[in-house]
């Protein structure tokens, strides 16, 4: 466009601020959200919830024209006028200091500009000259005066939210029932806004959990560098434990709370959100570990920073997925379902169930992220020292799960939970007399004790050793040599015999078959399994003296 053409275009008016009715609409969204939820200073929704709201258009319920039966709206509101996250964005957002919390919204803008104009923008959430040029191209294509702020009309056009215009007048209608779209429901839109916000707060809680873990691990007894691939696997495993299909600690409870509401809401409202998060998080962990590598190799800082970056990317991707796909699916009624514009609409009921499920699980995101990352950091230390192996008992698809090789485990190794035991008669349970772990700080050891999980559920590699008593015909000889069992178990439950004495092996055999006259080597493994069952049921809080350091 030449300078003369640009000057000839009419000057546009500034974007209008929100009306009182709009403010009421926005407060209705916030009223559905737990007001006590912590929101960090850098959170995406700070400016939208806690300060002056961005320019919005009042949402109105479509009205029948009384003649054709078609739904129309007033001149000031589009048919689908849900809050548009692109409205009010301007040049410099996501780039200038103090606007970084707007990056997810700018990413959505860049993605849509690439779609509409083929601009080939780098979707990085930072509005610079290239984003401005792409927006100008899009606005000129619509015969709109270029500007470096996104108004309501431009935002709606980018997200394909069209205004309907009245026809020339009443038109004849063929006889018979006419298909109609489900009525617009203001309450449904407000609830879906609240669901969206709760998902974002969930990711914020997970990032806060990592910040707390980093602080608690600031001083560790013997910090060790870890292998690159081990660190990548540990970071992905920590996130998979929360977001993944295999019993994800966040995904699972939310879906369970929606039982009986049909497959659609669990699939579109939960699985699609977490699928996108899991995919983007797994990719980002690997990239970040490579990026942060240094001459000394990856460290604890790399492990935590990679997960933080992955959660930020997951939050951004799920936001885009929810706004562009999930939300539209949740607006659709079930086949033959009566719908209305009121709060009793079945779509509203389903959306509120989803909101309640996410809200109920969100406060636990902090602790679950802390726990999973702490366990996976311990495993990463153990694997760096002992190496990995393919678990004979666990696989994902056709690939075996990589797990710690405990065939060379020794007491006191970093990341290995070392347990001291005593055994009397084989038919009686073993007694735990102590437990310790290296490579963790005092604060994290105390956190493990407070979890009140069983030793098995801590998910760490374990090594146990201690004296036992033998009462056989050779008892005096075997007892004279102080029979000892030394056994190990990795995080996936694979068993390892670690050079128990002959008397200890005999005790393990008796543990498996107390009255068996013919004893075989296979009974040693069975005895080990029984001992670990007795140990794994205990909690660290039951161990005398608690969990010690090295």
From TrEMBL:
Gene3D superfamilies, A to Z: PGBD-like superfamily/PGBD
Source taxon at top rank: Bacteria
Annotated region (Disordered), positions in chain: 160-184
Biased composition (Pro residues): 167-180
InterPro entries: PGBD-like_sf, PGBDSf
Record-given protein name: Peptidoglycan-binding domain 1 protein
